[in-house]
Each structure stands twice: as structure tokens, then as C-alpha cells.
Amino acid sequence: CDVFNREPSVNLLDSFVEHWKGITNYYIETTDETRPVKQTDIPWRLKQMLDILVYEEGQQGPEETGPCMEYLLQHKLLETLCTLGKAQYPPGMNHQVLVFFSKILVQIQKPMLHIINVYRPVQKLVRLCGLLGSQTEKEEVHFLFVICTRVKQDPYVLNYILEIEKKKLSKQSSSTLEDTENERGEETVPSSYPAAPSFACTPTQHSPTGSSSVIFPANTGLIHVLVHLSKSQKCRVARKACESLLLLASLPEEEAAECLAESTPLCQLLVERLCELYSQLPAMLDPTEIHSFPQINWSDPFTQDEESQSFPGSEHMKRFFAWLDFLDHLLKEAPKILATKLAKEIHNNWLIGVLQPELLQLSEMGVLVNTALLCCMVRNVQSPALVEELVLFLLGRDTQSELCLDTETHVLRYHLIEHCDHISDEISITTLRLFEELLKKPYRDTLFNLALRNLENRCYVTHTPGGVEDNRHFTDPDHDGENDELEEDPFFTEDEFNSSEEQLLSRSQLTREPRCSGQTQAVEIVNSFLCLVPQEAKTSQHVQGAGYDTYVHDANKQFKECTALTQAWDWSEVLKPTESAISSSDFFEGHFLKILFDRIGRILEQPYELNLQVTSVLSRLALFPHPQLHEYLLDPYISLVPGARSLFSVLIRVIGELMQRIQLIPNFTEKLVHVRRQLMGLDGETGVDHVTLLQGVIVLEEFCKELAAIAFVKLPSIDDSSNWQNTNTA
What we know:
- This protein is mostly helical.
- It has 32 helices and two strands.
- Strands 1-2 form a two-stranded antiparallel ribbon.
- The chain is elongated and about 105 Å long.
- The model is unreliable at about 1-10, about 165-200, about 200-220, about 465-520 and about 715-730 (pLDDT under 50).
- Belongs to the FHIP family.
- This is FHF complex subunit HOOK-interacting protein C-terminal domain-containing protein.
């Protein structure tokens, strides 16, 4: 302060008291009750008092309290100011009080919030914030942010701010709490600032023999006010309130996290807001707009391109996804005990209470919109705690192998998988997209639930004496496995099947010795998929830039990402031996793979967009570096048990059907090339017949190239004879 530099002999306490009496005298002498506070000397006197306190602290030692600070505490000046602010006399006084409180908490360095004559008025001023029609939201949220900042610096004061009441405490706990307050917290005029007290607000500190119940404060406590201000129409106010909540939620002390989780309504209020925003979303949102909706950052949800993201309901979507992003960010920052409580609150109150009925409703439009919203949520969520709850909500906890007729173990999971084969193509595409997003999340139980639990015992493989599975059923004429089943298929005539087999065998004329599945060399698997589609049904050679090498580049990048995703999942690198004690007669691939295989089996009859999504999900599954999943989806040479299907066997059936249908369409190849050029935007729309079939053939060809590329990047190089165990290091 300049005045101190000019007059070093000035008595600080006298000056401090003089300024305070100048404020109180105003109320005794003034007669004009309408005069705004800014037209009085009150703001100037408050500033002088603050400057004196700051200067005084700088002159004191770390363990000393100056006479001005003792005067402020002993005479309860903060309490009086809070009362004056509540009365709003003179008009605008509340603004001045909020500014003074904020500055004193920022500029005074020693801990203050544990002192009764500080935290009591702070509590009262908090209760004056967030009122309807408030004109001081900016000052209020800054004041609350300062409080949270002080709590972040000194977490032990949290229990002095939250106003948590306890009832039915044991005698021992009550006396302990009373001693703590008397010795450390209830000082009116401290001779020095006390050491940090321990937390005394959580039920875990009570004696085992005593019972306790925590009563949440009225809707005026710090948590309530911050959540209320987070709804403000003023973006800066809402953002500051969210930042304050993050400061509280990220307190690293376990006691603080437990206090917030168990003794405050923090989790309930945050989830109530989520449910409220979700209920405000229009029922007739456009699914296309939902799928293309960008990720929203909670700190500034309205910085996106307004024109490109302006559609009916876009503002509601921005608010909902901004709040979801905020909760996701909070869950990543919060200690485990608080994150777990909040994630379970989201699961029980929002996912189960609000979202599940919407997903199971009878209205197709309602199912479509809510599934699209759920897909967007899964794509955006990153926190492990929320990802886990989403997976449990959607898929359940079952770990046993699925049974073909078992449909009620988890109702939502069953319905979602059935929706992948829904009569509405839009619902099917959207639900498949949802599962694809789930498979991109770093949560191992997703893949286990959908596929691996049905494949882990390898019951799909024919067991032979000595533990060696015969892998020669495409080269050994005496083999009595899948070829026999395929030859009996009505889509295959003897000549057609032999022709198909000759194409498949053109890759290698060598006689192979029997070996375990999983040791098949890369060249054989790659060529099996590349040669699967007959030459007259291929169009890549007619269009520039449609070669196999593009898929290899993309597959290599995706496989590296997938491997990094699963690195901590502790998967075995070798195939599990088949066990003769396990019956393979009732092998069932699981409802999810069954639906995907059924869809691939109808690839020649389905819309182009649906085929793209089905193949995208299967490609995602094929990328995972799990030996059983790799064998089941990418090894054409496994000897399947009767009645079992693999991805390759399903594709063989599709090729058989295609060979028959090609014969019925004149100029098939020319029409196929034309449709491909149309899809690439090189040719205009014309009235070509059999468009669905032709588009299906194009997707089939590209899918086979994609599978070949995935097999290529996953397995050893063509010149390497190492087995699957070494593939991850190749």
C-alpha cells in the first residue's frame, strides 16, 4: 500500500478500525436507502482494509497472527459483511461483499477456512449464491471458485465448507469430533494459524459399534450451488462452475473422495443433470445428424462450426454431450472411490432408469434415435470407469459359453444383438455401428462377452487322436469334413464346387503334412481369400487404385492400433489345445457371431450400406491378436465339427450362390464394372438391373481383399516358417 510507504509510523490497527467504523457509521448516518453502494465510500474502505490485512501478513512470521486479522476475527467482521450483503443495503452491497470475500481468500496466504469466524460467514455467503434472478452470477461463481481453489490447496478444510450434519454418532466419535473442533477449528481469535486437522466428515471414522446417518444439507450448499450455476446461460459462468466442481472432485486424498462420494449429493446431482438434459432431446432427431455429430468439449461446447452443426435439436445435443464430456473428464480426474460411485450412479439412474426403456420401446423411430445417441455416447466416452459401466449395461456379466436357445440371460444384450438383424435396415446399421464402437474401447470383457467365451475351448475344431487337428480338408481328397458338407449344399453342383476348389487350390500344388491349425503359412491364407471370388466377379483390375496393396497399408496401421489397445490384456500367443473331455457336439458360436454370419450369408441380397457395416464389424473382430479368434475367422484350413460354421465356410456358401446367379445375368461383368464406377462417382446413375446383387458382389470382393490383408499383417511373412507364437514379434 502506498500509504504505508509514505507513513511508516502509521498504526495499522487504528487505520483498520477507522475504516471499519467508517463503514458502520454509514448505516447510522445515511437516510437515502436508494443510493447505490458504488456512490458511497464503502468499496474504497473495503479495499483499504484488505490492503492493510495483506500488508500486515507480509510483516508477520509464519506462526504469527497480526492484530488487524485478530480484530477481524474477534469482532466477526465477515459475519457482519455477510448480513449486509444479504440485505442488499445499500443496493449492490452483495456484489461488494462477494468481491471482498474472494480477494481476502486469494490474497491472504495462511489457511483461514478452518476458523469458525471465517468458515461460518463463508457458508452463509455460499447460501446466498445461485438464487433465481441473481444479477451477480459472475462474482458468485468466482467466489465459489476461490473457495474450491483453497480447498484444493488445503484439502482438510473440505469438511468445514460442506456443512455435513451427523446424527446418531457413537459417544466416542462425538467426543473425538468435539475435541477436534475445540482444539483446532473453533478458534475465534487464534494466536497462530493451527495445523491441518484430519477429516471428520465421513462415516468411516466412526467406531464400529456406533451407527451414523448422513443428512445432505439443504439445496443451498456448495455442491448444489455449483451444479445450479453450471446450468447458467452465461457460458463463462457455467464453465467456471464446472471447473470448481472438477477442483473438488480431483482432490487426491482418499478421505476427501469418500466424503464427497458418501456424504454429499455430488454424484446424484451430476447424474440428475445428465438425465434432465437427455430428456430434453427431441424425439425426432435425424439419425444421420447424430452419427455425424462431432465430439463436444465441455469447456466450450459452442465453438463448433455453427452452420454445419445447425439442425433441429442441435443446441440440445450440444448441451447434453457437453455435460457427458464433463462427467467423463471428471471421472478421469477423480480418485477411484469417487469415480466408482459416480459411474454406478450413472449406470443405475440414467442407463437403467432412463435409457434402457427407450432402447426397448416398440416404436422403431424411438429405438433408432436412442440407439444412434447411444452409439455417439460410446464413441465419445473415454474414462475407464464409465466405459466399464456402459459395457456392463449393454452386455451384462455372463462369462459362461452361450447356448443356442438361451435368450433371456441379459434382456438388453439379446435385443441389441437381434436388432443387428432387424427388419429395419436403419436400425440394423445403427446397432452394428454401436457394437463396432464398443469393440474399439480398451475393455477386454467386451470381446470376451461377444465372442471369446464361446471360442476359448475350441469346440469348433474336430478332435483327432493324438491332439492333432487335420487341416487338409481343402487338399486331402480323403478328408471327410467341411467339403462333404459343402458338396451337399443346394447352392453347389458338383461341377461348380470343383471349379471353385480348383481356383482355391491354384495357390499351391504342394502336398502338406498334417499340422496344427494356426501354423498355416501366410501365403496360403492370403491367397485363399484373394482367390475366393471368381474372376468374372472381380472388378478391381478395371478400376485404378482399387488394388490389394491399399488394404495392406490400412490393415497394418489398424493392427498396430489394435495390438496397442490389447497389450495389457494378457492374452496367450498360442492356441489352446483341444480337450477330448469337452463335448463339441453342441458348439454354438454365440448370438453375436451367429447374426454376423447370417448377415454375411445374405450379402448378395442386402443394401450396400448394410453390407459395408457388417463387413466393418467382422474386420474389426478379425484384427484382434487373439489366437482362437484368428483361427476361427481367418484360417480357411481348420477342420470344423459337424454343424459348425467359420467365416470362410460362410463365404464359400455365398460364392456358391453367386456362381449360380452369374449364369442368369447377361453381360454380368460389364454391369458389375459400371455399378462399381457409379459407387466411386465416376459414372452417372443409370437404370441397371440387379443393382443390389451387383453392389453385394463388389462388397464381397473388397471384404475378401480386406481379410487377406489382415491375415497378411497378422501372420509371419511369406518366407518365414515361424508359427503363430512368433507372429506378434514378426
